[in-house]
Amino acid sequence: MSGEAASAIGERAGAAREQPPASMRALMLVADRKIELRDIAAPPAPGAGEVQIRIKAIGLNHIDVWGWRGMAFAKRTLPLIVGVEAAGEISAVGPDVTSRRVGDRVVAYGALTCGVCKACRESRDNLCENVASIMGFHVDGFGRDLVNMPARLVVPIPAGVSYRDAACAPVAFGTVQHMLFDNARLEPGETILVQAGGSGIGTTAIKMAKAIGCTVITTVGDDAKAEKAKAIGADHVINYRNERFEGVVRKLTGKMGVDVAFEHVGPDTFNGSLLCLKRGGRLVTCGSTSGQSITMNLFQLYLQQYRIFGSFGCSIRNIGESLAKMASGLLPVIDTEVTLADFERGLARLESRQVFGKIIVMF
Ligand SMILES: [Zn+2]
Fold this sequence. Notes:
The structure is a single chain. The chain has 363 residues and is of the alpha/beta class. Helices cover 30% and strands 26% of the residues. It has twelve helices and 16 strands. Strands 3, 5, 6, 7, 8, 15 and 16 form a seven-stranded mixed beta sheet that branches. A six-stranded parallel beta sheet has the order 11-10-9-12-13-14, sandwiched between helices. A three-stranded antiparallel beta sheet has the order 2-1-4, with no helix packed on it. Strand 10 (215-220), helix 7 (223-231) and strand 11 form a beta-alpha-beta unit. The protein starts with a helix and ends with a strand. Zinc ion is lined by residues 113-114, 117, 119-120, 128-130.
């Protein structure tokens, strides 16, 4: 590097530290279904143990839709900065932080865990006994130019992975990694049923299961999505509007059933997913977009020796594993990129289920 170039970089870095912006853009949820792009005060310089991140991209998830619609049970106050998963660049570090440097590309773990309880110490972060809040849902999230975070909650992005793709690691990829490999213990050669294969986590599950050599059966709601699901590796695609998926899975598996069912739809599909399992099969669920409650046949549960896993979020380790998969070429399926001002339009698209893959908000 020439002396001039080095000096220019030094000046830029110096300028960034000496003149933090007074204000920044922030996407504020001000009422149910009402998000506004506002100018608010920029955060102070990061304190002890903190880094400041300049946000570059945000991934949208169903939890954003829940938050946008309004959740009676969620303790939170409005206005609230939205955005639950993001990627960005470290713009400043706290005085004692040596693990991260200005310019590092990172993603952030958006659950404010305590870092000291037994679960945290054992790297089971999503089982933290004192988890304070989920950023972007209970407390201010990542939909802003700058955010201060505990340095222990950021994970470096490997070379070659874009901010757009990395923004899918903390929630979408991390959740699926945790569901398939920590909870359901999916093994190469097994057969898996992925419900709602066109969704952000559905597309991720298809790709992660195919990558280890599983047979993937998935459900979608229209023929265009069926073609796309095949294109990303699904072996069999069932349009649930035309056929009963339980019957098709039974035929496809020679009446055996699948080893693992990947659920996040809820009442519309849950009992059907159980019926698709072979004896001793595993069902893992991370969501319930079609409602909250079901009636379950308990005779079937114990006679068939089903194992059911509730899964929420992931550990910080799962985010690193997800980014490593991206670096090796297993990239998220992107439906749409929208601008910050179109965040709400992105949520409406997600809510309408007219998506195939992830919606990303680019800064
Ligand atoms: Zn903890």
